[in-house]
Amino acid sequence: MKLRRSIALLFLMLMIVSCGPAEDMSQLDLSGGTAAQTATDSVVRISSKGQSFCSGVLVASDLVVTAAHCVTSENSGDLSVTFPLSPSDKTRSVAEFQKLRTDSLLYFPNFDIAWLRLNTNAPAPYKAAAVLGNSGDVAIGSAMTLVGISNDTPCNPGDTNCKLVQLAIELKSSWSSSHLVNLAVVDSSVQGANSGTCPGDSGGPSFIDKNGTPAVYGIVAGKDPIFTGSSSSSCGSPITVLTRIGEYQTWIESTSKRKLTIIEPAKKMLSLDFLTGNATDNTQQASWQDWFNKPLARQSAWATVHKILEQVVLEFQGQLTDDEIPQLFQNGGQVWVEKLTTLKSLSLGFPDQTLSIEDLRPLEGLKNLSDLTFLARSYKGISTISLLTKLKTISIIGRVVLRPEQGTLAWRDLASTSLETIKLSQLASTQTSELNWSSFPKLKTLAFSSPTGKIPVSWIREEKLANLQNLQLQELSCDLGQWPKEAMPNLKSLSIRSAVSLAQTELECINWEFLPNLSELSILGYRLNLDEFTVGMPPALAAQLRANTH
To answer: Domains, the chain, ranges and CATH?
Structure first.
């Protein structure tokens, strides 16, 4: 069986071991599964733009439930559903879909659920599967069956060779807490060695027998280091995370306008307010425990807390067993406070920058944080940075193409009396023009790269950088302004580089007299005539520049 591992995106910034890039699904061998016999007339294949990549389950005559990370397109017309058991009428287009959260990757493995409404009813012999409502009451160790569609042969829409396969699994643990929402962990080692899910199984259903009726217990979310540990994230490994769907009944029925067949109704379903409400969250919590326990999932601080917990896993993974890791997300407000307060490095945001944290207030609990990386966007609680008295380094990453919906960083409100290093990358100088350098009295190192254009010399403000010792600039230009008088008297190291081969004239305004303590000079990528450029330069710097150039 196969599982699309979207957790690779989520944990790439953290360097936690994940499943890596999706493999060529048409070439993967079946990982320990057998020919399916359980509820095969409800299991379907989901495709996007003609390429099959996920499984799903029919829960109403024209409604399929799958994993949210399977719905990568914003256009329902890109999606289609394949019904491999139908003799000839095999495909349906998708008229409408909805993910529980549009930004579900930010919360993975939580809330990894979506529904697809078909353009017409499913073909014969397909019928809707019943759903177990009270999935939280299922006993640990209970036997289940995971069903999906094999990719040992191509499975494109209309393909007659799609094979339904099943895998025996056992419930290992079940979770319902502030940061593990309706999740379950199953173990397929009961099937035998090398059995487990792989790319393509995401969204596929797990069934549990209820008095002879197979009921959907959950759908495949994937491999996640929170539960599977770094040693269990490979394709075919036995540990898999499921999203229990019974408690999502209210959301599914109210948004899709379709009725589910429920066996053993849930005693307590997840409320729409918890899942989709937009309650305000401007209250400043008194402690880390309050941040952990109080914010609802729709509130901005929830994702920040979750991200911090992920970072603790990275920081202490050598000291944690696989069973201890989910306990951090279950009761991190009490048991793990000591580990949280020793966290020294934190990166907020994601490599492609389509997702990012938007609330910095929970950082107040990280009393020993010394290194912080975040995106140049609007934040709640930007002033929280001033409360981090051990903070030494900030890295702020911008974008070549700005995303208006993420807002603008309040540069003027950025302040720290302990900060010694600021690194700015992928930013235009105009974006940072409101930085108040006097808010960083201990600043010693400043690095700035601007791939969107030149950095004007006028960006260097002499009265605010008197204590600076190291300056690194990319694409510095004399086009706009002159080198500041009496600028940076304590500067010891100056590094200037150009990735676009700027001309020597871009640097001719540098006044070496105003850099009396400069002892290290590096200029790379500029088109220099050293005989001309070094005229008037202190001999030691000229010699150093010649040596480094050749």
So the answer is: 7-275 (2.40.10.120), 344-549 (3.80.10)
Q: What is the pLDDT of residues 39-56, one digit of tens each?
A: 579 999 998 876 767 899
Q: Please say whether the beta carbons of 151 and 2 come within 8 A.
A: yes
- The pLDDT tens digits for 274-286 are 777 655 667 778 7
* Residue linked to tokens 């029919």: 58
| DSSP 8-state symbol, 503 | B
Coil, helix or strand at residue 114: strand
State how far the Cα of 197 lies from the Cα of 162, in Å rounded to an integer.
17
Half-sphere exposure of 463 (CA within 13 A, CB side): 1
Distance of CA 8 to the CA centre of its chain: 8
Burial of residue 522, with CB atoms counted within 10 A of its CB: 0-12 exposed, 13-18 middle, 19 or more buried: middle
Q: What are the DSSP E strand ranges found in 342-480?
A: 345-347, 371-375, 393-397, 421-425, 445-448, 455-456, 470-474, 476-477
Q: How confident is the model at residue 259 (pLDDT cuts 50, 70, 90)?
A: very high
pTM of the model: 0.77
